[in-house]
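=== RUN LOG ===
request id: a7f3
mode: sequence -> structure
chains: 1
length: 252
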Amino acid sequence: MRITLLAILFSTMISSAFADTVQVYAAASTSDALADVIASYRANQGDQIVAIYGGSSTIARQIQSGAPADIYISANEAWMDHLAAEDAIDIASRHDGLTNQLVLVAPRMTELEYSLTGDVSLADALGEGRLAMADANGVPAGIYGREAMEHFGQWEGVQDKVVYGDSVRAALAWVARAEVPLGVVYETDAIAAFSVVIVDRFPAESHASIVYPFAILEDRDRPAVLAFYAYLTGPEAAAIFRMHGFGATDQD
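=== RESULT ===
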């Protein structure tokens, strides 16, 4: 019995010694879904998958500065294009896999009712309150949000009332804690947070298409990275992402 236990322990140690660690730098809005994808993959694989989440702009800059990322998931195409222009990604691996929708959310217990196409301006609906958004100068959710409000002619009136987070999840947290009356987030964020409700949805034509490209970083195509990437862009992961509210692009 002791010999058997020692053999199992030795086998586990050997497997751990040869297991690889894959680092995925991903947009904060993918955190819940990606955690489930990783858990599903890890159930049958020995390699360790580590996810680092943040605003797409922040993690793209970290990658530029030498962060040891193996895979990058961006919440918009511009930041992936930026890394591609720097020869930081394996162009052949790029895959536009997910879509999302932009929504206006409020704390769950709110009595506020608001329509983007109604007669009341967003600034008036906020009153003395603030609007939570991701950074409109760099984070995709904030960029989309600004575009959408410009589309409705609302940006000029509301921009002085905006409080910015470094990621869409930071903006979501302010709404969930009822620190602000309204926030602009992705629909998947709203689905993930019981403490918020969707007040209205921004129509797709009010902003650029919300597409999440994936890519392997240049010279990071180790077997463990390729194996996880194949799963990440495959049908099982796609089903998990859909369960969390993401849509699929025409490529899937």
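=== NOTES ===
The first helix runs from residue 2 to 18.
The chain is about 40% helix and 20% strand.
=== END ===
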